[in-house]
Amino acid sequence: MWKLYTLLTITMLLWGINLPMLKYLLTFMHPVTMTALRVLTAGITVFAILGALKLVRLPTKKEWTYIIGGAALNVVLHHYFLNMGLFRTTGTNASLILGTGPVLTAVCTALILRNYPTRIQWLGAIVGFIGIGSVVLAGGDSLSGLKLGDAFIFIAILVQVLSFLVIAKAARTLDPRVLTAYMLIAGSLLLFVISFIQEPGEFAKFTTVPPSFWVVFAASAILSTAVGHMLYNYSIAQIGPSKAAIFMNLNTLFALTSSALFLGEIITGRHLIGFLLIIIGVMLGSGAAEELWKKRKMKPEPS
């Protein structure tokens, strides 16, 4: 179990770093065209990895329904609204709204899958959310005056949460890593269609971007999107959407930390308090604290 927790922490690090990388990429390109090529690159990368491991297979007709559904939610709608939102709002607002993922996942899982988290896991989600609020509001932003970009970010996290439920069902018969590969390719093709309609002629800008763009683009596509989605979807299949989503609290922490490193933002004492609350939230919400407590109680007392 601790191996999965480590994988999820690494995934959140990759996703957190991806936020400032996307902000950088969007200074050169419009969102949909850039996202389409980035997701396609990620899909090809996943297929290359799975091909080397000899894990690729053709899905069944039923599995294709999950692939299309997952691609529509997790790839097309999530990445579309995420990048459209980042194009219009601040990184700190986006980080806070993305941090609502664990609570939304817990609610959707309870309502749709009838899989109710424990009281301690609910407490972990709430503590983590408080930590996220502390971290983000330390930057001086407030939630008053909701902007269109903020609404887009909320839609992005909501559809991603719904996609986790689809992925959890699909993973019963299809390796989630293979599912990820097909979802990314299918989703990228749909994004290309949208880009040709919404951003005609934007594809030509790829010939004018500086070399630094391609370095960041490769890191975002290969590490954050390809490897990150593979690890997260695999974790969903192992421990379920609710427990996996608790780790999304770390996404905000890593996003703001990487923004401080690469974009020059200042980390304050409130960030450190938020960091502590986020860690506590992850330990409680993931069930790790309960596991440690049970193991301690099961240990025989020294005679």
Give structural notes.
With 303 residues, this protein is mainly alpha-helical. The protein has helices spanning 2-25, 31-52, 61-86, 91-98, 101-113, 119-137, 148-170, 176-198, 211-239, 241-246, 249-263, 269-285, 288-298. The radius of gyration is 19 Å and the shape is globular. The two termini are 31 Å apart. Mean pLDDT is 82; it is low at 141-146.
Set down the secondary structure blueprint.
Elements: H1 2-25, H2 31-52, H3 61-86, H4 91-98, H5 101-113, H6 119-137, H7 148-170, H8 176-198, H9 211-239, H10 241-246, H11 249-263, H12 269-285, H13 288-298
Helix pairs in contact: 1-9, 1-11, 2-3, 2-8, 2-9, 3-7, 3-8, 4-6, 4-7, 4-11, 5-7, 6-11, 6-12, 8-9
- Helix and strand content put the structural class at mainly alpha
Contiguous uncertain segments of 5+ residues: 141-146
User: Helical stretch count?
Assistant: 13
Strand elements, count: 0
Portion of residues in helices?
Answer: over 70%
Task: Please state the CA-atom Rg, rounded to the nearest Å.
Answer: 19 Å
Whole-number mean pLDDT = 82
Largest sheet: none
The string of secondary-structure elements, in order, is: HHHHHHHHHHHHH
Approximate strand percentage: under 5%
Question: What is the global morphology?
Answer: globular
Q: In whole angstroms, how far apart are the ends?
A: 31 Å
